[in-house]
Amino acid sequence: MTTLPTVVAVSGVTGLATGLGALPVFFRTRVTHRVYDAALGLAAGLMVAASVFGLILPGMEEGTLTAVMTGLLLGGIGLLAGNYAVPHLHAQYREWLPEGGATGDDAAAMAVSDETERPDHELSAFADPVAAGESADSTDSAGKADPSESADAAAEREVTLRKALLIGGAITLHNAPEGLAIGVAFASGLEEVALVLAVVIGLQNVPDGFAFAVPMADTGMSNLRVIWYTTLSGLVPQVVASVFGFLLVSVAAGLFPVASGFAAGAMLAVVFRELIPSSHGHGHADAATGAFLVGFVLLVVVDAVVVV
């Protein structure tokens, strides 16, 4: 029987894969919209196939069609309700869009920096609050702090925290269903299904991380900080959700059909609510559609290889 540390380790590895998608920021080359849209299409194809072959079909084998479809509807509705209720910033190509109560000012605060400044300066408002205390410019020659400087630093920290929470809300809405799927499968004794999901979600996390890192890098954030936040965006919600799903199904035996449908519904809602709209409308729909098909086929191949 799978143990909780195993679930944490597997979901942790899949979450860490998100950071691989941020590696292109080291080159600081301008990523084309075609590549960005194709990355979203690839991620969408992987998620749709994972929902069908890794969650819906195994759920129907373990339970009834009614249970799985009920869970699917609940998962999709839950994701849409969370998207409406939770204030967050949705990352798009070189811009941020406010949703769920976030304001236009929140998105404007993530302004794109000057292209010439990015390689040499840490301009991000995500700079750690601790770093603000490292500056000696806020004190005069007598060692006294400037009150206005302190007020500005406090206001900046407040803005930083709000932006971190807004982006964290989007990350959780997007990545939590994937972690939930892994935990639910492991708890139900379907180790092969769980491993297939882990491999596929890990693959999907790479283009997902890339899509997240592109607008993040354009805020002027340093390379290492972009990779750090991108990695956390996949690691934290997926590990937490996988643990929750594992414990939930372990306590309530026979819950797998509903839980698998719930995770599938939430993942499908992410695809059609965020990934597909974000990958179309820029003149590169063919590239996004082709990448979607590649992602779908890739899941089927991975599924066949792992099961065999």
Question: Brief overview, please?
Answer:
The protein has helices at residues 4-16, 33-62, 65-85, 104-108, 129-132, 147-187, 191-217, 223-251, 256-279, 285-307; strands at 88-92, 95-99.
Structural notes for this entry:
By secondary structure, this protein is mainly α. It has one domain (4-124, 172-307). Helix content is 70%, strand content 3%. The protein has ten helices and two strands; from the N terminus they run αααββααααααα. Helix 1 (4-16) packs parallel to helix 7 and helix 6 runs antiparallel to helix 7. The longest helix is centred in the middle third of the chain and has 41 residues, at 147-187. The radius of gyration is 21 Å and the shape is globular. Mean pLDDT is 78; it is low at 115-142. Pfam families: Zip (PF02535).
Biggest β-sheet description: 2 strands, antiparallel
Q: What strand line-up does the widest sheet have?
A: 1-2
User: What is the percent of helical residues?
Assistant: over 70%
Count of separate DSSP helical elements:
10
Cα radius of gyration in angstroms: 21 Å
Count the strands?
2
Question: For the residues shown, what is the average pLDDT?
Answer: 78
The overall number of domains is 1
Task: Give the overall shape, derived from the CA principal axes.
Answer: globular
- Sheet-strand content, in percent, reads under 5%
Overall structural class, as computed from helix and strand content, comes to: mainly alpha
Instruction: Please mark out the parts with pLDDT under 50 across 5 or more consecutive residues, or reply none.
Output: 115-142
**C-alpha termini separation:** 20 Å
Provide the succession of SSEs.
HHHEEHHHHHHH
